[in-house]
Specification:
24% strand, 249 residues, 4-stranded antiparallel beta sheet, 6-stranded mixed beta sheet
Length: 249
């Protein structure tokens, strides 16, 4: 469970360009919830994701994960719980390393690293089986450098790598924003499958209202740093795409 209590985030406090990105936010996300967050630019949704990830610290308030205070816990220490996929397919992978070596690094993300990455046949087989689920044929190209793949391929593999170390929380920061429609559809289908299979708690930030309508079991609409609409379960299922379009009309 993720719990934010009275969280505020102010950038450039006391200066002429001061920005109140998050204002007195109280939000609880239950274990295994798949939350989609929408909002116009500047609504605070990306700041919220950064606060949960630990890459941005709150100006005030508290954040807990599974009952443990993490308000001042650095993002690298939160990595044992949290995996994140960014909107740029170039982020989160080592382009000069092979697919297999990238997966090995992902598997060791929260562990101490030795002098070598170290892969064996058992690990190679595990990676092959995971990648085969994508039906992209990449399980036969494990030694291919990650940087030679398309954006859609890299993003799909990044999703798979995010669950190599048994994380509990998956943060999706507009993961399809830089992709063509076909690749975007494949990446979102992969995300849904992994979230369900590994029973993850997930937060998806998106500008795509169709994706916001189709994916997740809870939908939050943010504006000016606060939550203005929050639909979960049946209430979300009963929303139409037109309802979402009206929010921004």
């Amino acid at each position: 469970m993720i719990k934010l209590e009275s969280v505020n985030k102010i950038f450039n406090r006391g200066k002429a360009n001061e920005v109140k990105a998050i204002t007195n936010l109280n939000l609880t996300i239950l274990a295994h919830e798949y939350v989609v967050i929408v909002g116009a630019n500047g609504s605070g949704k990306s700041t919220l994701l950064n606060l949960v990830a630990g890459s941005t610290l709150p100006s005030s308030g508290s954040i807990e994960i599974d009952g443990q205070p993490v308000t001042r816990l650095q993002d690298y220490r939160r990595s044992r719980w949290i995996a994140r996929v960014f909107q740029n397919p170039l982020s989160g992978t080592a382009p000069d390393l092979s697919i297999l070596d990238n997966f090995r690094l992902a598997a060791l993300r929260t562990q101490s690293k030795g002098l070598t990455i170290g892969t064996n046949n058992a690990f190679k087989k595990q990676v092959e089986e995971k990648i085969a689920l994508l039906n992209m044929g990449l399980e036969h190209k494990l030694m291919q450098p990650m940087g030679t793949l398309s954006g859609g391929q890299r993003q799909a593999l990044t999703l798979l790598m995010s669950v190599m170390d048994e994380c509990k929380i998956l943060l999706l920061d507009e993961p399809t924003a830089a992709l063509d429609p076909r690749s975007a559809k494949m990446v979102m289908e992969t995300a849904d499958k992994l979230i369900n299979e590994f029973k993850l708690t997930a937060i998806l930030i998106t500008h795509n209202l169709k994706d916001a309508h189709v994916h997740g079991n809870r939908l939050i609409h943010m504006a000016e740093g606060i939550v203005i609409q929050d639909y979960a379960g049946e209430k979300k299922l009963n929303l139409t795409q037109n309802d979402l379009f009206e929010w921004f009309s």
